[in-house]
Amino acid sequence: MFLFILMMVFMLMILVMMLFMLISYKKMVDFENSSSYECGFTINSGARMMFSYRFFLISILFLIFDVEIVLMLPIPFLEELTSMLMFYLFMFVLVSGLIYEYNYGSLEW
Q1: Which GO molecular function, any one, fits this protein according to its record (predicted)?
Q2: Range of the domain at 76
Q3: Residue 41 forms part of a structural domain
C-alpha cells in the first residue's frame, strides 16, 4: 500500500511538472528588463560584483560575536552556580575560537 501511494505521488508530481512546462510561455529576453535599475541612468557594471572573501569572513565573525553579546546580557541576573559555569564554558569556547582565528590569520585585512 505504501509503495502504491509513493508511486502515485511521484506520478502526480511528474504530471504537474509537465503541465507547468506546457502552460508556461517563453518570452524574449530583453536587456533593458533583465538589467539592474539605477535611477534611470545606464549601468556601468553588472549587478553581480565580486567581493572580498576576507570581508565575508569578518562579517560572519562579527555576527557570531554579536550573538554572543546578546546571549551574555541576561547572565548577571542569574544567580545559579550552573548558569555561571555554563557562562564560563561559553566564554572559553568563544575566546578559544577567536584565538584560533587570530593564529590562522583570518582577522588580517
Answers
A1: NADH dehydrogenase (ubiquinone) activity
A2: 54-108
A3: no
Q: Is residue 29 part of a domain?
A: no
SS3 106: coil
SS3 1: coil
In the block, residue with C-alpha cell 539605477: 38
For cell 557594471, the residue is 45
The residue that leads in pLDDT, 10 or 27, is 10
Q: What is the pLDDT of residues 53-79, one digit of tens each?
A: 888 888 888 898 888 888 888 877 777
Beta bridge partners of 41: 38
HEC-encoded secondary structure of 25-84:
CCCCCCHHHHCCCECCECCCCCCCCCCCHHHHHHHHHHHHHHHHHHHHCCHHHCCCHHHH
**Short-list 104, 28, 24, CA closest to 61:** 104
Q: 37 lies in a domain?
A: no
